[in-house]
Amino acid sequence: MGMGHFLQENGEHMTKATTEQDKRTFEPPLTKKGSPLVIGDEGKLAAGVKGYAIKSGSRIMIPLIIAEKEGSGDVGRFLDALSPRCVIPNVTSPRLKGMLKRRGFKPRYDGEVDIWERE
Q1: Calpha distance 43→86 (Å, rounded)
Q2: I want to staple 86 with a disulfide (CB 3.0 to 4.6 A). Which of 36, 39, 76, 82 is the partner?
Q3: Are 78 and 60 a contacting pair, CB within 8 Å?
Q4: pTM metric for this prediction
Q5: Burial state string for 1-31 with b = 16 or more CB within 10 A and e = fewer than 16
Q6: Could you give the CA distance from residue 55 to residue 65 in angstroms, rounded to a whole number?
């Protein structure tokens, strides 16, 4: 399989990996610094995926991931494409935990917070 694309609302393409061998280089658009997290008014992270992404040091933390259509595979493709700088903190969903484990993410604990990242 080759590379596919996410299409942003502004018409620009965002590359997504479609196989494990493809480079994982996708970094979602960042939420404006200081913006409140408002449920129901999340930003678009990728095609079919809403959420919240912020820069923290050299990492991009993605504490909220929401499928626009559950079961479509969009969140899985999003996770497959993420660059190693992207981490998922505070995972509470058993479904998301399973998706992360299957994609090589592992939790580590930063104090009392779990942060899922690829090794």
Answers
A1: 16
A2: 82
A3: no
A4: 0.77
A5: eeeeebeeeeeeebebbeeeebebebbbebb
A6: 15
Length of the chain: 119
Answer for the pair 60, 28: CB distance below 8 angstroms, yes or no: yes
Instruction: At 42, give phi and psi (nearest 5°).
Output: -75, 155
Using an 8 Å Cβ cutoff, are 68 and 88 in contact? no
| Rounded CA separation 13/21 (Å) | 21
pLDDT along the chain (119 residues), means of 10: 40 46 80 81 92 93 94 95 95 95 93 89
Pairing of β 86-89 and β 59-67: parallel
Three-state SS sequence of 46-105? ECCEEEEEEEECCEEEEEEEEECCCCCCHHHHHHHHECCCEEEECCCCHHHHHHHHHCCE
Cα-atom radius of gyration of the chain, to the nearest Å?
14
Q: In what order do the strands lie in the sheet with 59-67?
A: 43-46, 49-56, 59-67, 86-89, 113-118, 105-110
CA 83, CA 60: separation in Å to the nearest integer?
9
